[in-house]
Amino acid sequence: MTTLTDEQAVDEAISRGFVDPVGEAFPVPHTGGEEQGNALYLDVAALLDGGIPDPPAPVLLHRDDGNAIFYAAQVNLIFGDPESGKTLVAQAAASEALIAGRKVLFVDIDHNGPQATISRFLDMEVPEKVLRDPELFRYVEPEDKAHLMAVVKDAKKWRPAVAVVDSVGELLPLMGLNSNSPDDFTLAHTAVLKPMAMVGTAVLAIDHLPKNTESRASGPTGTAAKRRAIGGVSIRVTINEQFTPGRGGSAFLSINKDRHGGLRRHCPAEGKEPSVGQFKLDSSTDRIRWTVTTPQLGEAAAAVGVNVADLAELDRLDPPPKSVNDVKDRLSWGTTRAMDTLREWRSRRSRAVPEERGTGGADAVPTFPPLGVGNGERPEGSAKGAKGAPPDAVLPSEPDSPHGWWVASNRPEHPNCLACRAMRPETA
Description:
By secondary structure, the protein is an alpha/beta fold. Helix content is 34%, strand content 16%. It has 16 helices and 11 strands.
């Protein structure tokens, strides 16, 4: 099946009335500033004169180690099974922005409803005065294609920091497009998602997994077209503890794609879909408290239902396993256990993830957590002997060390870090 090129997608979107032909020619690549004109070619000399910027880093939905998950000015995807927590993750990200006083657009095509959506924002401790202010928060449940396209046009002027689109599965039918067509997804992306990202918005598009077992392993429906279109990060959400009103729950988050590598570099180097951490929700009180934990080795395996000990068993096989039947014969396992474990074991031996920057295989992907890469922080010093530190503890040698930056930034403390604790005024 052929796939529309970017130029063909724009032409088709114009012909179907999704895009105004005036000023909507396919833009030059985003260079990190406001240089999104319609020039035929990018001015490479001007770019070099200004200095090539570092690859972008995620800025939205911070984990408890201070690293964020979603990118600004990009289309990010959140996908998973029904009731896995996809919308909860998106609303937590939007809440973080609203509490910080930033603009949020919530496009409710999935008919969650205004009462449920706004009540949840209030429970997530978004101030009522923020939700009342249309310059900070806008909610819409589009009635038809014309209504949706008017919202997109307005968003390009309003420039929200975050736009939640829930969901892609309902977006295409609303526009009269086929949910199973890669070309139709490309049209929807060109007409709705991309225009908002191009004005600096962190677009969080929510999507579902297909029913087919093999397709589910790759990602959401129409995977090839969607993976190509995602300029930020694509996050798989897998339920761990079912989300229950009055109690809460948790879900595993894992990377399906990270074009710039800014999130992957802060995750354990394990398999094609490393763990981002766990999204945990506590609703046992009249407030909803959420956290995204620091990823741990073994969570990626747990997310796909594989036991870490079983992976170790395959590591010990000599010669290495060749097939599911080989595993079954040598370890006396059942078919499902052998198949799932072998698939995950093979993914961890993959040396590269194509199309993504900063992910050139296991040797090129630092294990968690590379404090300081891409954040303007300096390498660790080697001073020792802080109060309560073991003899071999590595501690900062100067005030502006990475740990000094971490503490001064008021971010959550670098987990289990004696150096950070030693620099806190109350522990000095």
